[in-house]
């Protein structure tokens, strides 16, 4: 076997690091470009749906609503890609500031109202919970709650209910998102926060999915000094919890 010197190995590692940086850069630039185009398309679709350019038939409206919801899913996946790319950086950038948690949750629920009513699902928010201002990165935390509400919708049957609560536990706010969906099989629960992992029943119900949402959400929540966990029973439903100091 040829002799490999320490110098060769170091040079090789350096080359890999450069390649890795180049790849991250490429992913980041492409993903941002994709997100900009997708967001523009979504806006154009919404203009059509609002009949800004003429009245549409019911079938046309249905189809456009479906395309809009698919665009939203693509925007989410691309955003996750951007976040995952960031979480692998040694220095992820967080912009911390005060966040009104009720206001944030209401905003997220509003984003999914169209999709929910299409599936005949009611998202209810218990507003009697404590109103708290937490310190965090609003944009990043929003993607966490978007991922959780989106999953609750995605893995719920038509007509299901989704309930969102907040409560305080010692010096933390705990937010829960409960659904009556397919649940997570007991034997797969330990893998659920792993990158790219999707449970078998989820793959059967929804072929589209990345298995990145929970992985990057857990990273974001951890960066806030909080935690994420869930209770679930296959066939009965799932409750995801997020705690933030
Ligand atoms: P994706 O939903 O794109 O597959 P996620 O990372 O968001 O990826 O979720 C990972 C997996 O966790 C899902 O594929 C599914 O198996 C499971 N899961 C997440 N949320 C729910 C839920 N509300 N109900 C049932 N299973 C869920």
Structure description:
With 245 residues, the protein is α+β, with helices and mostly antiparallel strands. Helix content is 51%, strand content 18%. The protein is built from 6 helices and 7 strands, in the order H-H-E-H-E-E-H-E-E-H-H-E-E. It has helices at 6-49, 58-87, 101-118, 138-154, 200-205, 213-223, and strands at residues 97-100, 122-125, 133-136, 161-169, 172-179, 227-233, 237-244. The strands form 2 sheets. Strands 2-4-5-7-6 form a 5-stranded mixed sheet. A hairpin with a 3-residue loop joins strand 6 (227-233) and strand 7 (237-244). Helix 1 runs antiparallel to helix 2 (58-87), helix 2 packs across helix 6 (213-223) and helix 4 (138-154) packs antiparallel against helix 6 (213-223). The longest helix is centred in the first third of the chain and has 44 residues, at 6-49. It is globular. The model has no long low-confidence stretch (mean pLDDT 89). The site of adenosine-5'-diphosphate has 22 residues, from helix 4 and helix 6.
């Amino acid at each position: 076997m040829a002799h490999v010197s320490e110098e060769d190995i170091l040079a090789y590692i350096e080359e890999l690091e450069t390649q890795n940086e180049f790849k991250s850069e490429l992913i980041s630039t492409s993903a941002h470009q994709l997100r900009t185009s997708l967001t523009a398309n979504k806006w154009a679709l919404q203009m059509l749906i609002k009949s800004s350019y003429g009245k549409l038939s019911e079938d046309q409206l249905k189809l456009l609503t479906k395309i809009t919801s698919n665009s939203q899913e693509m925007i989410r996946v691309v955003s996750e890609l951007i976040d995952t790319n960031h979480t692998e950086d040694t220095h992820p950038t967080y912009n911390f500031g005060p966040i009104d948690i009720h206001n944030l949750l209401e905003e997220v629920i509003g984003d999914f109202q169209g999709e929910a009513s299409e599936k005949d699902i009611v998202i209810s928010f218990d507003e009697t919970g404590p109103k708290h201002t937490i310190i965090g990165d609003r944009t990043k935390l929003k993607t966490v709650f978007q991922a959780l509400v989106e999953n609750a919708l995605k893995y719920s049957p038509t007509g299901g209910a989704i309930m969102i609560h907040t409560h305080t536990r010692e010096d933390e706010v705990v937010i829960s998102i409960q659904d009556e969906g397919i649940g997570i099989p007991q034997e797969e629960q330990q893998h659920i926060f792993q990158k790219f992992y999707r449970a078998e029943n989820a793959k059967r119900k929804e072929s589209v999915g990345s298995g990145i949402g929970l992985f990057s959400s857990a990273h974001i929540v951890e960066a806030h000094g909080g935690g994420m966990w869930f209770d679930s029973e296959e066939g009965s439903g799932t409750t995801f919890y997020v705690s933030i100091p």
